[in-house]
Amino acid sequence: MPDIVYLNGEFMPIEEARIPVLDRGFIFGDGVYEVIPVYSKHPFRMAEHLRRLQYSLDKIRIANPHDDAGWGGLINEIIRRNGGDDQSVYLQVTRGVAKRDHAFPKGIKPTVFLMSTPLATPAPALVESGVACVTAEDFRWFNCDIKSVSLLGNCLLRQLSADVGAAETILFRNGQLTEASASNVFVVRNGVLLAPPKDNLVLPGITYDVVLEIARAREFEVEVRAVSEAEVRGADEIWVTSATKEVLAVTSLDGKPVGDGKPGTLFRRMHALYQQFKQEHMRTPA
Ligand code: PMP
Known about the structure:
The chain is about 30% helix and about 30% strand. By secondary structure, the chain is α+β, with helices and mostly antiparallel strands. It folds into two domains: about 120 residues, 2-Layer Sandwich (D-amino Acid Aminotransferase, Chain A, domain 1), CATH 3.30.470.10; about 160 residues, D-amino Acid Aminotransferase, Chain A, domain 2 (Alpha-Beta Barrel). The strands form two sheets. Strands 7, 8, 9, 10, 11, 12, 13, 14 and 15 form a nine-stranded mixed sheet that branches. Helix 6 crosses helix 8. The longest helix has 19 residues. The chain is globular and about 55 Å long. The structure holds 4'-deoxy-4'-aminopyridoxal-5'-phosphate.
């Protein structure tokens, strides 16, 4: 099946989609996005993703071009047209096209784009082995809660791990854990699951919320609070979470083993519960 995308009111093969060079998404990175995992053709946590989209749009003062029913229709249609059971739906809204000027132009229409790619969740071998990560100082801006397409900081930080064949770059700001370049981070110490709070320094991950929801429902001991760099470096377990990674164990940090260098007990429990949670979701009507 060809890759079908949606651009400003029309579905078309990806090769035919064209954006004017003066689109502010291209010129300034002036836009926001979402990535929604789809399991067995069911978008996972769509309401939560659309709520976060609204939050990002409000923060950068773009009027939402669609209501939730409108978005739901577009998302389900892109899933249908692309055909696979498990997909990753990407949607992006930019401020639109205007003569280049930093200040917001008046009266322009946002650009709306959706595409879908096959969902590649981590292979079982990776879940079994865990992944290596490196660390870096979080030099990004103070609005990391906005899911902005201005991702240069995240790309530069992710590349630090890519350069050494690691899966992610875990970030510290002033000695405190924030998140990773494209994931949230959890830490386990003495049987307690620690999570940095959702503030302006981290993206409020949808997977982060699912993991906390499962942890609380299953009576894991949970503390949502600032986590220091020292606590991360001395952790029994470290996890990274995102829509496409789901929950992954970090088994090496800056070349040193995390805990005993194998995915930990709490990780194994959480990973199994997460898969179960997905299965239950797939049984609910789309
Ligand atoms: N933090 C950052 C910086 C991200 O880019 C992402 C998503 N790729 C996440 C956290 C995780 O968010 P979600 O669980 O909604 O995918």
